[in-house]
Amino acid sequence: MKEAVIYSLVALSSLTMLAYTVHMFIGGLVSEETEFLITVGVVITAAVGIALLARDVIMRRKTHSSRLRSGDPS
């Protein structure tokens, strides 16, 4: 359970920094509406990527822990 809290905190901080990075790169070059749409698109894409990575970790841990319970050391 502690891992979920840590993963969530890291994901939130990463998405915040990513949104700010997008703002710094394109802020002032395009309209505010365009900047908002690009930021939302980038953050949603990154959130999906982070979710897929977290899902992969969870699946690997379940597989690994079930192997350990069954006596298979690999």
Low-confidence stretches: none
Spatial extent as radius of gyration? 18 Å
The largest pleated sheet is described as: none
One letter per element, helices H and strands E, the order comes to HH
The coarse silhouette is elongated
Considering DSSP H and I runs of 4 or more, what fraction of the residues is helical? over 70%
DSSP strand tally:
0
Mean pLDDT: 89
Q: How many independent structural domains? A: 1
Strand content: under 5%
- The total count of helices amounts to 2
- Whole-Å distance between the termini? 25 Å
Structural class: mainly alpha
Explain what you see.
The structure is a single chain. By secondary structure, the protein is mainly α. It has one domain. Helices cover 86% and strands 0% of the residues. The protein has two helices and no strands. It has helices at residues 2-26, 32-70. The radius of gyration is 18 Å and the shape is elongated.
